[in-house]
Each structure stands twice: as structure tokens, then as C-alpha cells.
Amino acid sequence: MTTQNTPSSDSQTDDLRIGRQIRDLRKAKRITLAELAKKVNKSVGYLSQVERGVSSLPIGVLQQISEVLGVRVSWFFQAEEEVPDDERELIVRAGQRRSMTFSGLGVREELLSPRLSGQLLLIMTRLAPGATGGNEPRRRKGEEAGYVEAGVLELQVGSHSYTLEAGDSFTITGDEPHLISNPGDTETRVIWVMTSVDY
Fold first, then answer.
1. What's the domain count of the chain?
2. In terms of domains, do 14 and 56 share one?
3. Which of these, 127, 116, 110, lies nearest to 164 by C-alpha position?
């Protein structure tokens, strides 16, 4: 299990893979590191470290980078293994989920949807004890809903904070800023349903 202070080898591998993808996509779009840094309000040094896979990348920052580079965050998800052709558009096996781990945060995202081109995306977020989805609330366009499958979830929406337990669900509408965290001592799992344009 990934903790906030001890990144796993999987999360370090994901950091390097995602960093290379950002660098390659940025260069392909002829965007300089300085231009990208200005648009996402981060330092050139920090983004350089992200591209080299030596600095952790919060989900919110990856979302900002994705918007600048013109791709959905789901573009960065890595398939665990090859999927049979007849299942590719229909089924996601538990051992074949596309995923990415955010080192330093204790957060792992798993794509439960078989297609990235559909109108809806189904995503599972795993938060280690004490983990948070980022330091600042994030916004998405449109509507999204979540179901707490296991553990305890602290959900902050605007100025309100809610504690949800396994079996509870919620809906966030509009562009309300929100933040999630795991205040418990076991892993929290949240299943999200959202429109693909937002992710």
C-alpha cells in the first residue's frame, strides 16, 4: 500500500512514465517548458522535475497540464496488460485496469471504463490512510457522482465538509470546488461516474 511518505516502486514507475508522456506531448505541440509553467502557475524547475519523474504530481496539477496540452487526464492511464480484441470495447477485467499512482499523495486512480471515447467514465480512486486528492480544491465542468465502496471519505464541497462511510454516495454539480481525503486508518475506495469531457 502506498503511503504519503514512502512511495512504492509502482508509483515511482508511474511518475517516470507520466513525466515522459508530458514531455513528449509538450514537445510535439511545440510548447516550451516555460510556457507550460506559466499556464499552470508552476515553476519551470518543478515541471522539469515532473518530466524527469523525480517530483510528485498531484491530480489537480495533472488536470491543468492536460487542459493545456489538449488531452483528457485519462490519456495518461496505463493499461496493466493487453486486452483481448473482443473485450476491448465492452469489458474491463480486474487485473487489466488502466491505472496511475500519484506518489507522495497515497492516491491511485483506476479506470473502470472500457472505452475512453464514451460519454461517461467510471473511475475508482484508492486513498491510503491520511491521503488527500491534493492541497487545493479542484473544479470540473458538469456533474459527477461518487460512491464510497470502502473506508471513510472526507468530502469538502465549497465551504462545507462532510464525512461519508462505506455505502454512502454523493453528487457534485456545476463547477463547485471540492477536495477529498481519507481521515481513517484503512484504505478508502471511491467509485466515480463523470462525463468524459471533464476528465
1. 2
2. yes
3. 127
Scanning the structure block, which residue is given the C-alpha cell 483481448? 84
Q: Do residue 106 and residue 136 come from a single domain?
A: yes
Give pLDDT tens digits along the chain (199 positions): 333 444 455 666 778 888 888 988 888 778 899 999 999 999 999 999 999 988 878 888 888 898 888 777 777 876 656 777 788 778 988 888 888 777 667 888 888 988 765 678 889 999 999 999 877 777 766 788 999 999 999 999 988 999 999 999 999 886 788 899 999 999 999 999 987 554 4
Q: Determine contact, residues 116/134, Cβ cutoff 8 Å.
A: no
Cα-only R_g, the chain = 16
Residue 175 belongs to domain spanning: 94-198
49, 76, 103: which is the final residue of a domain?
76
| 72 plus 29 within the same structural domain | yes
